[in-house]
TrEMBL record:
Residues 14-88 form the OmpR/PhoB-type domain. Keywords: DNA-binding, Transcription, Transcription regulation. Residues 95-240 form the Bacterial transcriptional activator domain. InterPro entries: AfsR-DnrI-RedD_regulator, BTAD, OmpR/PhoB-type_DNA-bd, Sig_transdc_resp-reg_C-effctor, TPR-like_helical_dom_sf, WH-like_DNA-bd_sf. The keyword Acetylation does not apply. It comes from Actinoplanes campanulatus. This is DNA-binding transcriptional activator of the SARP family. Belongs to the AfsR/DnrI/RedD regulatory family.
Length: 261
C-alpha cells in the first residue's frame, strides 16, 4: 500500500488496483490510523462531513468490499472488522510510509557514527517516495492533509540527514548538487542554505559560499520572510576565518554537542 504519492494498492504481481477516489480516501484513512480501528461513522464524517448523504454508510461498506477484493490474499486478516470498526492490520501488509519512517529512524541512529550507512539508509527512505507530495489526490480530507504535511516534514528531515551524512563521509560531489536543489526548492528553510554553504566550502567554492550563496540565503530568510537566521551569520564568520574541518563545520550547523573551537 502506498501513500507517499497518490494513494494506491500495488498487487503482488506489480499491477495497481483501480480504485475510485472515495475508495482511496477510505484506504488512506485506514492506513493513517496505523492499525487502530476506524468506525463507519468516523469514515463517513471524515470523507463527507456532517452534511453527508444518507447512503454514505452503505458507500463505505461498498468501498471496504472493493479494498478487500483488491487485497485478495488473506483479506479478512489484512482488513479485519470488529465492533469498533475496520482496520488495516499492520503486520499483514507493507505500507510505504511505515517503511519510510523505519528507515529514517535507522539513518538517524547511524549518523554520525556510521555516516556511509546513514547516507545509504536515508537514500533508501527517500527512494520510497513516488512524487513531490504525500497523498495529493485525497488532501481535501482534513485529517489526511495534516498527515501529508507531517510526512513531508519527515521527508525534509530525511533530505537533511542524507546531505549531512554524505558530507561527513566525503561524498561532496553527491551532496553539493542535492543541497543546491533543496535550497532552490525550499528557500525559506535555513538548514538547507547552511548545508549548501558547507558543501560549497568543502568543494573549494569558499568565495561562492560566503558571498553569492550567503547573500541569496539572507535575501530569502531575512529580507523576504523576516526570519531571524543567526546560524547563517555564524556560519559565514566561521567560513571566513578558515581552518575548519568537515566535522567542525557540521557540528556548527547541527549544534552537535562537540566543540568547534
Amino acid at each position: 500500500m502506498g501513500i507517499l504519492g497518490p494513494v494506491e494498492i500495488l498487487r503482488p504481481n506489480g499491477v495497481k488496483a483501480d480504485l475510485q477516489l472515495q475508495c482511496r480516501k477510505v484506504l488512506a484513512l485506514l492506513v493513517v490510523a496505523a492499525g487502530q480501528p476506524v468506525s463507519t461513522g468516523q469514515l463517513v464524517r471524515s470523507i463527507w462531513g456532517d452534511d453527508h448523504p444518507s447512503h454514505a454508510p452503505q458507500m463505505v461498506r461498498s468501498h471496504i468490499r472493493v479494498l478487500r477484493g483488491a487485497l485478495r490474499h488473506e483479506t479478512e486478516r489484512t482488513l479485519p472488522t470488529s465492533a469498533a470498526g475496520y482496520r488495516i492490520a499492520p503486520d499483514r501488509c507493507a505500507v510505504d510510509a511505515h517503511r519510510f519512517r523505519e528507515l529514517l529512524d535507522e539513518a538517524r541512529r547511524r549518523w554520525p557514527r556510521d555516516s556511509i550507512g546513514a547516507a545509504r539508509t536515508a537514500r533508501a527512505a527517500l527512494d520510497l517516495w513516488r512524487g513531490a507530495d504525500a497523498m495529493p489526490d485525497v488532501v481535501d480530507v482534513h485529517s489526511l492533509r495534516a498527515e501529508a504535511a507531517y510526512l513531508e516534514e519527515l521527508r525534509f528531515q530525511a533530505e537533511e540527514t542524507l546531505v549531512l551524512a554524505s558530507l561527513e563521509s566525503g561524498q561532496t560531489e553527491f551532496a553539493l548538487p542535492r543541497a543546491r536543489r533543496l535550497a532552490e526548492l525550499h528557500p525559506n528553510r535555513e538548514r538547507f542554505w547552511l548545508q549548501l554553504m558547507v558543501a560549497e566550502a568543502l568543494s573549494g567554492r569558499l568565495v561562492e559560499a560566503t558571498s553569492i550563496t550567503f547573500r541569496q540565503a539572507r535575501h530569502h530568510l531575512v529580507k523576504e520572510t523576516g526570519l531571524h537566521a543567526p546560524g547563517l551569520e555564524r556560519l559565514q564568520r566561521e567560513l571566513l576565518r578558515g581552518g575548519r574541518s568537515t566535522e567542525q563545520l557540521l557540528n556548527l550547523i547541527t549544534q552537535r554537542p562537540r566543540s568547534v573551537a
